[in-house]
Amino acid sequence: MSSCWGNHFKISLFGESHGEGVGVVMDNVPAGVKIDPQELLSFMARRAPGKDRTSTPRKEEDLPKVLSGMQNWITCGTPICAVIANTNTHSSDYQEMESAARPGHADYTGFVRYQGFNDIRGGGHFSARVTAGLVFAGGVCKQILAKKGITIGAHLLRVHGVSDTAFDPVAVTPETLLLTASSSFPTINAEAGEKMRVEIEKARLDCDSVGGVVECCAVGLPAGIGSPMFDGIENLLSSILFGIPAVKGVEFGAGFACADWLGSQNNDPFYMDEKTVKTSTNHCGGVLGGITTGMPLLFRTALKPTSSIGKEQKTINYITNEECTLKVRGRHDPCVAVRAVPCVEAACAIALCEILSSAHTL
Ligand SMILES: Cc1cc2nc3c(=O)[nH]c(=O)nc-3n(C[C@H](O)[C@H](O)[C@H](O)COP(=O)(O)O)c2cc1C
Q1: What is the pTM of this model?
Q2: Burial 139-175 (b: 16+ CB within 10 A, else e)
Q3: Which CATH fold topology does 4-359 show?
């Protein structure tokens, strides 16, 4: 198996949830970029677990140790390797799962695929712990892109019937995109955030979980980046976004809703804003024919409800092939979508670095 992504700007993620640590190797990062370590650490802290009841109580600080590729936080142009140690593991919680498959999780498929040799503890390499490396890489990429005038931001758009204020597809600003970076809960509207917290807590107390939708946007991208067919912006973004565990859907612009519209409703009339070409609705999410229009790049990612829940569920013992029941123990996020927000931003930043790198404009 390989957990490598990218053809030009490459990342390779490694590690298991309860092993020594997780991390990333990044190839073809341009030389001479000054990285702000505080900004990188606060980005990683947004993903780190154990902050409050909306996330798993497993407390990890997610402090990266950079082994190579940077000197005094300036990129050398050589491969960057960062390791994040696992410091808080309770492997005994997973003994039952060595034979009983968690419904909705990858225990059964992982067992079949790796003939039982995969590390099951904490979900092993299937665990979202591996996204710590993704977020390190994405944090570096976000800073590279910011120096080119490109800003990326995401927020929790929906949780169990509660909606946040959506990004304005034609007028989203860098300031709006940076709002969630400094808030304790990743919504634009604090009241909506409080209501989401209530829904998440209700599910947690009921030994259940909820899913959610993360909306992400990038502004400052010039028109004309990307390619048609298989190397389009949508293709590349979707490919890395589906690498985030629990992602079940990705839609761009108006997404699935436009399938019910007439062409006259969905078309996005062009106009001139002084000397700049703009479109008036951005229903296409900033992409036409796989190529950027110069309007905000806008997409949404759906995350399923956490599969590890404390309710008794029917399952199978995959060693004996017998039916059994399972109440999942261990420490779990009652709503994975909350901590997925920086993961989505990271995936977007890495994908944009790959696209710019392949166009020799990074
Ligand atoms: C930020 C984040 C945190 C997650 N936390 C948990 C968790 O605590 N418990 C769990 O069962 N799944 C969690 N997941 C999801 C699983 O890792 C995922 O469902 C599993 O690997 C199976 O992959 P799939 O859902 O993509 O098929 C999390 C996902 C993300 C993005």
Answers
A1: 0.97
A2: bbbbbbbbeeebbbbbbbbbbbebebeebebbebebe
A3: Chorismate synthase, AroC fold (3.60.150)
